[in-house]
Amino acid sequence: MATPLGEGPKHGAAMSELLVVEHAAFAIADGRFVWVGRAADWSGEAARALDVGGRAVVPGLVDPHTHAVWAGDRLADFDARTSGRSYEEILAAGGGIRSTIRATAAGSLDELVALARPRIAALVSSGATTIEVKSGYGFSVAAELRMLEAIDALAKAGRARLVPTLLIHIPPADARERDGYLAGVIEELIPETARRGLAAAVDVFVEREAFSVEEARTILECAREHRLGIKIHAEQFHSIGALELALRMGALSVDHLEACTAKQFAAFAGAKTIATVLPGVSLHLGLPAAPGRALIDAGAALAVGTDLNPGSSPLFSTSAALALAVRLNGLKAREALVAGTMNAACSLGLLDAGRIEAGLPADFLVLEDRDWRSLVYTLGANAVRETWIGGVKA
Ligand SMILES: [Zn+2]
User: Confidence band (pLDDT; 50, 70, 90) for 48?
Assistant: First the structure.
């Protein structure tokens, strides 16, 4: 058994600290771990015993960044891009993110739930027991709320813990509608989301083609007034001040960071804001990966997510995201496990997930292999044999 230990988040060198117990055992009651140790030290009585045959056990993974609810597809975009067409040509042909918004905004609640259910199931079978899911393809207030309702319905129907985030994703194509759109977000969408308890946090995509730092600050201050957590999609393509805003406002996480530069690394040392990297995007788009190694060496607390979405990261495996983080972001196997469990949980404001410890929900994985490192070594097959959530096999 391998698990991070103690309360997180873990920064820098502490990301390499794992508790590894050979011949381990744990006891579960009422969905929680009640005892964890070496099998030889167990002296209690259990109503039922489960022998995993010497296979490795790790905590359930936490996927801290997904856009798992969408309608339509981007297969034609993918084919066009990999055939040499430019992003502008794809947009001109009606593709790109606005095609996903058109399809998602037109989808009924039932359709959105039905489309997302197998994606959530795929993440769970890949080891995720807690999954953040963002809105952001609805655009209008009504369609954004419908996306959040779909996440709520998925959470109630399944075993995995889903953590919903309201994402303010893309401004109107017509610049004249921009102020009116932002007014709707501030006066209607965020208050209604908070009133109905439909999201734990608000996220903003800050980028040259998306929202400015000033606009993000206004949106996130509104979120804070409504007692919601805050997150930022930052430094994906350009460094325009989003990261500094996130750290200044004490965001739960700042996600992407591919364009993060050396002079920004030190700001993460000891910061409570988690640096979340998303290697699926780097692989799918063929772009440079976020400097995970340098961020950890500078003292950051790193998390890794799939960023599951139709346009830039069709990655349906949370354990594969960790495997990619080792290859593309330079993480050690140990760091990847911490990044995909405890630190990812902290990026969602959760302190009771991401480790195997008495008192916490019994979310854990039985791997196919006897060595836990197979989780981040394996490519193209599922290293996870069983996903257990709250003491029940999913
Ligand atoms: Zn994203």
Answer: very high
